[in-house]
């Protein structure tokens, strides 16, 4: 396929792997933030092609994985209310709560619908004026503009039966939390190309300067990822931090200004809990006061729901790069895609799911 095959070229992959081996004189630990990048690395065997002194660890960039347990339980509580339609992206339906997931809730009679866009959920609200329609609005900066657009459009049209259960998070505060952790192993980052397509790379520059680390926005194909890893290795070997863009065909420094404008109009920054990690200050987005009437958490009074995680699940350590999925004692035994303890085992971008699917495990 044009514009795809060249980024999967085996000869170019081999040259990049060889060049990484030549440049990497020392041992380095690099984190790819994005779960989509993790799956591409596993699927294409890039982790097995790299020299042994390059250790890839997997970050908290899977939006499903970091959606806190209380959001899932609140969604389940809202879905159980008569007259409510809960709309969600499909990958959220298998995320485990304490006792069930949204698929189970649907099998028990809840009106839970899979949509491909928050604007589709808004259309369901238009079509069902006698129902309350709640969209489960999760994700990083990638999904925030569309989620903001749905709320803004609902406000403009006066669609009063639409609301969002918001669990939006942002990448730079997570990077700061990882780098500030006493057990941090990460020395450089591959930043998520789709997030950077929205936000640009300006927001990473203060992080790179403060911690002296290289941050390289990268894409998702094998050549994209290896080119990003090579750039991180070169910067590490030269002892310099900063931001270097390896995804120039998609990412610019300023990002998508209109998307950022809409996002900032509807949302404001707030502290936010991350599943398995805890609260990261100023890492999330919440609806501004002008749009508070579209906040499903307030509308249905579910903010008090605060369940406890399974003590067996160590996904938080995986998401911070402290642990590889296969190092978790529950991996593949108590925790599998059929009986998941955490979202990292069921999400299409989850690191544990990638290790399970692509056999990076010792069972």
Describe this structure as you would to a colleague.
Belongs to the HypD family. It comes from Chlorobium limicola. This is Hydrogenase formation protein HupD. The protein has 363 residues and is an alpha/beta fold. The protein has helices spanning 10-23, 35-43, 46-49, 63-66, 69-79, 102-107, 118-127, 144-157, 171-180, 193-199, 205-211, 222-238, 257-266, 296-299, 315-319, 351-357, and strands spanning 28-34, 54-61, 84-88, 111-114, 132-139, 162-169, 188-192, 214-218, 242-243, 267-274, 278-287. The protein has a domain at 65-170 and 257-299: Rossmann fold. Helix 1 (10-23) runs parallel beside helix 12, helix 7 (118-127) runs parallel beside helix 8 (144-157) and helix 8 crosses helix 13 (257-266). The mean pLDDT is 95.
Pairing-aware structural class of the strands and helices?
A: alpha/beta
The main β sheet shows up as:
6 strands, mixed
Q: What portion of the residues fall into strands of 2 or more residues? A: 15-25%
Spans where pLDDT lies below 50 across 5 or more residues: none
Question: CATH superfamily of the domain at 65-170 and 257-299, please?
Answer: HypD, alpha/beta domain 2
Rounded to an integer, what's the Rg over CA atoms? 21 Å
Keywords: Iron, Metal-binding
GO biological process, one term: protein maturation
InterPro entries: Hyd_form_HypD, HypD_1, HypD_2_sf
Pfam families: HypD
């Amino acid at each position: 396929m044009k514009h795809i095959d060249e980024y999967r070229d085996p000869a170019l992959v081999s040259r990049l792997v060889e060049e990484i081996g030549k440049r990497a004189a020392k041992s380095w630990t690099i984190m790819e933030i994005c779960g989509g990048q993790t799956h591409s690395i596993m699927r294409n065997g890039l982790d097995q092609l790299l020299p042994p002194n390059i250790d890839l660890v997997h970050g908290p960039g899977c939006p499903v994985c970091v959606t806190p347990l209380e959001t899932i339980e609140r969604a389940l509580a809202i879905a159980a209310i008569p007259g409510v339609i809960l709309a969600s992206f499909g990958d959220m339906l298998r995320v485990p709560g304490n006792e069930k997931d949204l698929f189970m809730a649907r099998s028990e009679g809840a009106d839970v619908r899979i949509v491909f866009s928050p604007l589709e959920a808004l259309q369901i609200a238009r079509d069902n004026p006698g129902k309350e329609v709640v969209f489960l609005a999760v994700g990083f900066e990638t999904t925030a503009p569309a989620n903001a657009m749905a709320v803004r459009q609902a406000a403009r049209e006066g669609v009063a039966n639409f609301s969002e259960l918001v669990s939006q998070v942002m990448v730079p505060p997570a990077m700061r939390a990882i780098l500030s952790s006493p057990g941090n192993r990460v020395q450089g980052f591959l930043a998520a190309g789709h997030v950077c397509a929205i936000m640009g790379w300006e927001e990473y520059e203060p992080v790179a300067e403060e911690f002296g680390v290289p941050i390289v926005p990268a894409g998702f194909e094998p050549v994209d990822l290896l080119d990003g890893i090579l750039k991180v290795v070169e910067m590490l070997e030269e002892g310099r931090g900063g931001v270097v863009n390896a995804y120039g065909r998609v990412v610019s420094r300023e990002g998508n200004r209109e998307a950022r404008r809409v996002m900032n109009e509807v949302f404001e920054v707030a502290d936010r809990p991350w599943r398995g990690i805890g609260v990261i200050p100023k890492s999330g987005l919440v609806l501004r006061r002008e749009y508070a009437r579209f906040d499903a958490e307030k509308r249905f009074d579910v903010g008090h729901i605060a369940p406890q995680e399974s003590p067996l699940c160590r996904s938080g350590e995986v998401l911070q790069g402290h642990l590889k999925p296969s190092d978790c004692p529950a991996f593949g035994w108590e925790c599998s895609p059929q009986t998941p303890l955490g979202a990292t085992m069921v999400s299409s971008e989850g690191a544990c799911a990638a290790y399970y699917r692509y056999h990076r495990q010792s069972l």
